[in-house]
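Minutes, project check-in
Item: structure for the 399-residue chain
Input as provided by the requester:
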Amino acid sequence: MKLDRFLNKKELVDLTTRLIQIPTENPPGNEKKAFLFLKPLLSRMGFKIRTYLSPQGRYNIMAERRWGNGGRSLIFNGHLDVVPSGDPSRWKYPPFSGKFSKGKIYGRGASDMKGGISSFLQAISMIDRANIKLTQGGIALHLVSDEESHGHQGMGFLAQKGLIKGDAVLVGEPTGLDLVIAQKGALWLRITSFGKSAHGSRPEQGVNAIEMMMHLVDRLNSIPLLKEHPLLGKPTINIGKIEGGTKINVVPDRCEMEVDRRVLPGEKKDEVLREIEGAIESVQAQNPLFKFELEEIDDAEPSEVAPDEEIVRIGFEACQEVRGERPKVRGFSGFTDGRFYVNQFNLPTLIFGPGGTDQSHTTDESVEVEALVQAAHIYGLMILKYLSGEVAKNKDYGL
């Protein structure tokens, strides 16, 4: 069905703008104002709303709307928090202005991912304006906090409480309207080297913790990362932060390094840890004075779903119908809240939304209005196809 004639472009732009204008920077995470703005809107749209505050008082919305009795439930996940905007003077427009200019909306969260939330809500409004009478099924909205900090106070909290119920999931992260079915995980580690302090004029009397860490950096960067995923490529390792020493004329007795190891589906955390430990041990074997401490900061599991999952095929069909071209099916080098649905609840999950990953977390972040429009149309078709079971089960999509 042609839903696009029921799309209200002004309403879509206004909602995206209003959401951007609510600063929800994480840290510290100020999602409450976004919740207070969205609650009456969702109520008017027929959603029953439940609010869950995390142990740190972060707001998470779980809203549900049903048609008739029985049927399947489609979950839409969107995060309300955004990364810090940084120095406002470096932005073309103020980062929380939601400025509309030359077909784009600018502001922190425009692409990641308030635009995706706006497009999905517009899709539901389009179905209502089209007066389509769904007889069964429902939509569950999970509008959560803290995604930008691993989701411990958002999806991680909801998952831990066992609150996730549904049959398939759409995560509205910015994908450039590509279909994303796999994502890397991450293991964040802190490694501390311990030396012996001495006067800077007599370094031979000390053990330089920074120099020892430099040997380890070389060893970590020489680890052969041989595994490869067809959509995600190879795993990566990044030395993200190093701190050491107290004064220029003192031999440093301590150095601290933080390491970001991206993990492929199928890789196990224990295996990755042994890989890092092996690098440390090889350096230690060459220099017995090298002492270390390894600490896990955080981790996020990788995830993937099969390309022939029904929600993926529905997305493929809807994208092709709206855009008139074959959509790309790909992976994410980063991680999203989608991993919780896949790994802990075994729910088929498609990551799909307007905006590009090249815009996420950038100065002058923006989203194209045309992408919001197309996403709303595609979301609308996906809702109808999934809740009605319309998609051809045996069609060859060539995924």
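Outcome recorded: The chain has a mean pLDDT of 95.
No further action items on this chain.
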